[in-house]
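Lab meeting, item 3. Inverse folding demo.
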């Protein structure tokens, strides 16, 4: 399940999108994300976050992310792989 979640997070996604893709309740996915965030594999996407800087800076995906260009206070809850998460998938 963890690896599947990491693969889904190659593209920025919201909690409801992840829950639907995994066929799980949002609260279950939220708990998984909290554990993976604490371990450094995923992060919230917002302008200047490690998740955005590591994953989207050099890619055209940045313009597709709902969090792109928004500071943390204004960004929707969008999750993205961190550099550590990308490394784990390699």
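The presenter then showed the designed sequence:
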């Amino acid at each position: 399940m963890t690896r599947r979640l990491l693969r889904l997070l190659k593209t920025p996604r919201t909690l409801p999108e992840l829950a639907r893709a995994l066929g799980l309740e949002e609260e279950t996915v939220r708990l998984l994300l909290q554990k993976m965030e604490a371990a450094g594999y995923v992060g919230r996407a917002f302008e200047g976050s490690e998740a955005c800087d590591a994953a989207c800076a050099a890619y055209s995906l940045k313009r597709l992310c709902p969090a792109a260009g928004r500071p943390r206070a204004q960004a929707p809850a969008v999750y993205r792989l961190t550099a550590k998460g990308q490394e784990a998938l390699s």
